[in-house]
Amino acid sequence: MAGGKNKLELTSRAWIESGIAVLLCLLGLFFLAKSVSRYRLRSSMVGALRHHDSGRRVPAIDECRSALDRDEDYQPARQLLAKLLTEQGATDSGRLGEAEREYQILLQKGYDRANVHVGLGVISLMRASVATDSKGASDLADKARRHFQDARSKDSGCPEAEIGLAHVKLLLAVHPALKQGGVSDARAEFEKIRTRLESTEAMRSKITREGVLDLYAGHGRACAEDGASKDAARSFRICTVYFPHWPVALANLAYADARRFSDSPPAPGDLERDPSVASFTSLLDTLLAVTRPEGDPLREAHANRELALAFAYGMADDTLGMNGRINRLGSDRREGLTVSGWVWIQIWQGKKDVTPKVRGDRAYYAAAPYKTLLGHAKFKDAPPAERAAALNVVGVLVAESAYYTSSAHVFPEAEKALLEASGLEKANFRFHRNLAVLRKMMASRESDPEKKKAALAQAQQSIEEARKAAGSDPAKLENLGRVEGWKP
After folding, report:
1. pLDDT in tens, 30-79
2. Residue 311 domain flag
3. Is residue 144 part of a domain?
4. How many domains does the chain have?
5. Could you give the count of Cα atoms lying within 13 Å of 128 in the half-sphere of its Cβ?
6. Of 145, 148, 138, whose CA–CA distance to 180 is shortest?
7. Domain range for residue 326?
8. Could you give the residue ranges of the DSSP H alpha helices within 351-446?
9. From its phi and psi, is residue 9 left (phi > 0), alpha (psi between -120 and 50) or beta?
10. For residue 183, what are the CA distances in angstroms to 173, 225, 406, 408?
C-alpha cells in the first residue's frame, strides 16, 4: 500500500507451527526437569549405597531421605532407609520404631515382598533380645517367627527367612529369661543352612551380604554358647572378610578369642608364635585409635580380650607379658587388678616345693594388686561384700608373706585388713576364722610373754566369733576345731 506501513501478517499455518514449537519447548523443559529430578533421585540413591557399603550410616540415611523427598514412592530408597534404621537400632532402640514405620509404609504402598517381612522379623528379634521378662521376650520371639514365616511364604527360596528362623531358635535357647530348647539344636540349624549355601549355586546367587553376615554371626554365637570357641572364631572371621570393619563381627571375634584364651590358656611361647593374635591386636588398636564412647561394644570386647590374654600369659608363667597386657588397658580399668591378683594366687598356691622365702614373696606379689584395687576410684563405692572379700584376700596374703619371710612387723597390716573385712560382714565365718589363724601366727612370733598371752586371747576371741558364725554347720565346726588345736 503506497504511503502506508508494512504489516507482518501470519498465516494460519504459521500460527500452528509457532504453537507447536512453543509446545515442544515446554515439553522439552518438562522432560528436562523430570530427567534432572530423576538424575538427582538416582544420585542420592547411589550416594546412599556408597555410604552404606562403607559403614557410614548417618550420611546414607540422609541420602535416602533426600531421595524420598523427591519421590516418596521410590521403593529402593525406602527399603534401604528401613534397613539402615534397623541397623542403628542395635545401639539406639528408638530407631527400631522408625524402621518399623518405614516397612509398614512399604506394605501399605503394595510392596509386599519377602525382604519387608524379613526386616520386620529382625526388628522383633532385636526387641526380644533386650526384653527382661519372659512373657515379653517370648511374645516378641513368636512375632519374629511369624514374620520370617511370612517371608518364606512370599518366597520359598529366601535364605534370609531361614536364617531368621534359626536366630529365633538361638534366642529362645540363650535368652536368660527363656532358656527354651538347646543351643546345640540352633547350632545344627545354622550348620544346615551353611552347608546348603556352600554347596548350592542358586542359594549363593540369591543371598544378600547381610544374609551372609547374619548366618555366620549366628553360627559363631551358637558355637560360642555351645563351648566351641575355635569354631566360633572361624565364623566371626568369615564375617570380617565380607565386612572388614564391622564392629559387631570384630567384637564377637574378640569375645571368642577371650573365651578361647580363658578356657584353654596356650602353652608358653604359643601366643608369641600365633600370627593371628598379633595381627588382630594390631587391627583392634587401629580401629580403637578413634575416640569411642564409654561402653562402646568394640571397646568392651577389646578390653575383655586383653584381660583374657593377660590371664593366658600369667598361666604360662609369663608375668611380664601379663603385666604388659594389663597396662594396655589403662589405669581406669580395675578388672586388670583382679586378673593379676588371681594369677599370682595360682602361682603362690601352685608349686609347693619352693623355699619359705619364695613362697612368702609370691604371697606379697599376689597381695599387691588387691591393695591397689582397694584404693581404686571405681572400687570405693563397691558393695560391702566385694570390699570385704578383697580385704580378706589382702589379709591372708600379707599374713602368709609375713609368716614365711619372718617379717613380724607386717602382721599388723594383715590384722587391720581382716578386722575391716569382719566388720563389714560380721556373720562371715571365713573372715573370723582367718583372723584367728593370723593372731595365732602373731603370738608364735612374739617373744614377750605378756604380749604373746594377749595375742592368744585375741585369737580365742576370734575363734568364738567364728563359732557363732558357723552355727551348726559340721564342716565349718570341724575346720574351726583344727584351727583351735593348731600351734604354729
Report:
1. 655 555 556 677 788 888 888 887 778 899 999 999 989 988 998 999 99
2. yes
3. no
4. 1
5. 27
6. 138
7. 245-330
8. 356-374, 384-404, 411-424, 429-444
9. beta
10. 6, 7, 54, 55
